[in-house]
Amino acid sequence: MNKLWRIHLFAGAEEKDEAVTYCIKNKKMAIGWPCKIANDDVDEYLEKFKSEHKWTKKNGNYPDSVNRIIYQVKENDYIWTYDKKDGHYYIAKIIDKIAHTPVYQKNDFFSEEFGVYRQVENWYPCEDEEVPGKVINSLIKGQTLQAVDSCLLEYSRYLYQKKHTNNSNHIFKSDENILDTLKNLLHYDDLEDLLGLWLQIDQDYIVFPSTNKQGTKDYEYMLKKKDGSRKAVIQCKTGYSDIDASKFNGYVNNKGYNVYLITTFGCVYNMTDKIIEVNKEFIEEDKAQMYVISLDYLLKWAKENKIILPDRIKYYLDITGY
Questions:
Q1: Buried b (16+ CB within 10 A) or exposed e, 129-151
Q2: Measured at the alpha carbon of residue 134, what is the angle toward residues 15 and 222, in degrees to the nearest 5?
Q3: Contact 129, 115 (CB under 8 A)
Q4: Residue 312 has pLDDT above 60, yes or no
Q5: 0.70 cut: is pTM over it?
């Protein structure tokens, strides 16, 4: 079975921007740690690696990313990367069966900076709304090369073929149910936007944008009823991240805030009998309350209000046929 990967192209290279540009232009995914060997020979590269780079990993092995690009990346796998220089995410398809090392030539940028590389069919730039939330999160930090959740393989294959064939009518088909597919595609920013739009349009709140910058881990931002009667805070989690409801008891009991919580595959725990779960309809209590909102409920609302949705949410609703 094929895999989906993401790579930080040349995270530690002295000429990082030039190396990333070279990879994109010359259809390569590559890592650094050059050893300047005379042949395209991965075994020779590995023999020289430890003495060249003085690798002192606990088990004496090579870095995980070296092992992955040589032994685990396969033909027809897909790979994502991000180029900070031009601000684009890129997607590519691996087309070679084995890894390669550059044949060393003095004053040659490729052979002096590159360690191991794989050939790709092409790197295609993607619009922000096309990039799944899990891909964005995976490229924020982490190792040089690592796998991305396989649930996004089908979408990545679809997106790549759409760009490769230049067919804007290419249809996305997923093996998952549509709701699970959307849960995997959405970024946590999308959840913040979706919940915030619903609260502002249907529940008569306004957002205080500056509260999003306060650095608190409790909530994403603060809202207030247009008539000034009550404040509210929200918390959003994607993936299998859980939410501890007890952290918000003080907002409800002491401050008189409404609290709105949402998570995709995770759960809300430490819930009391007073917490209201919103799945089919919403009726706001007169007193301060905590609400757990289902994504399905919000997406059904979004479907009826597509004209005001951010591009990425609208795009995912359209391609999945939700």
A1: ebbbbbbbbbbeeeebbeebeeb
A2: 105
A3: no
A4: yes
A5: yes
DSSP reduced 3-state for 225: strand
Q: Residue 237 CB: number of other CB atoms within 10 A?
A: 18
The Cβ of residue 41 has, within 10 Å, a number of other Cβ atoms equal to 14
**169: helix, strand or coil:** coil
The whole-angstrom separation of Cα 300 and Cα 88 is 31
DSSP symbols for 63-103: -HHHHIIIII--TT-EEEEEETTTTEEEEEEE--SS-B-PP
**Tokens 């070296």, residue?**
66
DSSP 25-39: HHTEEEE------SS
Q: Note whether 32 and 10 are within 8 A (CB).
A: yes
Question: pLDDT per residue over 38-76, tens digit each?
Answer: 999 999 999 898 888 776 555 556 888 999 999 999 999
Residue length, the chain? Answer: 322
pLDDT at 219: 86
Reply yes or no on whether the pLDDT at 216 is more than 70. Answer: no
Q: Which amino acid is at 297?
A: Y
* Cα–Cα distance, 12 to 95 (Å, whole number): 25
